[in-house]
Amino acid sequence: MTDPTAAPLRPRHGRPGRPKSIARHGRLSRRHPFASLGKIIAGIAVVAGVSAFSLTTMAVGDVVHSTKPAVVLVDPTTHKEVTQQQGIEALQGSFNVLLAGSDSGDGNKAYGERGENLNDVTMLMHVSADHQHVTVVSFPRDMLVPIPSCPNPKGGYYSAMSAQKINVTLSYGGLACTALTVEKLTGLSIPYAALIQFDGVVDMSNAVGGVPVCLSGPIKDPYTGLDLPAGTSTIKGQQALAFLRTRHGVGDGSDLGRISNQQVFLSSLVRTIKSADTLGNPLKVYSLAKAAASNMQLSTSLSNVQTMASMAVALKGADLANVVFVQFPTNYVDGGGAVAPDEAGEQALLTALQHDEPVQVTGTTGIGSVQDPSHATSASAATGAATDAASAPTPTPSTAPTAGSTPSASPSSSAVALPSEVHGQSADDYTCSRPYGK
């Protein structure tokens, strides 16, 4: 059956007052990318996967002949290409990496039927100047945002639009347009970007030997073919892909529920990649790099092995509690067929990112997940579980979230406590996927 897609491109009236961004225009380059960064939805590969890149130079070299052309990001103030860092040392200061997940599936049931290439997963990773805090923001695919004038890969520019679903930007102007749109939305400069094919999830989950995920009840989704029992399952391959793509099987069947379900997987993936079992195994590290490189299209600023190694050096010391996944806060509009940014939550989140401040989630983990009661949790997950338990039916007794759990220490004494409108969790929070309607 068909998963809903964005409406045809047409201008709408959007909200004024967006923070100004440093827009970058892109064009395709015929250079072959030198390598590739972690895999999204695994989208976070850069978050954790990048930690392994300090050991993956050999794998990067092995995939140097990738056939995907790199995307050039150009600074409009100088009209010059965004330069690549040279030398393998830690990147200086804060930096942002855009990760877009393409939903093209080539007949794979887990993708659903698609008539166009959409970025159904769009994430922005912000790394703080001290390289100790990482914030990964997931943008709902149906969120209405202004789309700036984007370069047409065939020449010229597309017209700007006042409001359109963010997941059409990839089909509208390619990865460069998605980067421009997120820059306009957030007011953040984005010098690095990567387009990930979902098949990379299969390869990455295989490379680490599978990713353990917790389910508070059995999940069955005929749209993706997912069929998992309650409890913890270690998933990889097509099963991992189906888990990340499921929407009808979790929460309320919405894309918002899918985001929180994906964060269950991503937090576990980060823990798995950063574990000694992975980083201490050269074969696994090599396989991770190859899985990433084979399934990504990079901006030229990111396609240099030295740049990725520098990111690895910068991120290797980040504590799991300081890697925070958040869902961009939204409210339903247009009769529930789309969402728009929630002003209070949006302002708090973007102000923190623009000022390079670490964040702490005080809201719930999201409609598609609950706290895993069998693990100690941080303040964000404990608070989220308490709210979840008060507002939703209780899962099976053996896996029910524990309301009112005593939170552990805050990830950082200087972290900005986000309002409850912002949902998410840290990589140190153990959460379980919530079955549809439960």
From TrEMBL:
InterPro entries found in the cross-reference section: LytR/CpsA/Psr_CW_biosynth, LytR_CpsA_psr
Organism per entry: Gryllotalpicola daejeonensis
Disordered: annotated segments: 1-29, 362-438
Family, as annotated: Belongs to the LytR/CpsA/Psr (LCP) family.
Domain Cell envelope-related transcriptional attenuator positions: 119-274
Pfam families per the UniProt record, alphabetical: LytR_cpsA_psr
Domain of life (superkingdom): Bacteria
Signal peptide per UniProt: none
Protein name from the UniProt record: LCP family protein
Low complexity: bias regions: 373-420
TM ranges: 37-60
Compositionally biased region (Basic residues): 10-29
Biased amino acid composition, Polar residues: 362-372
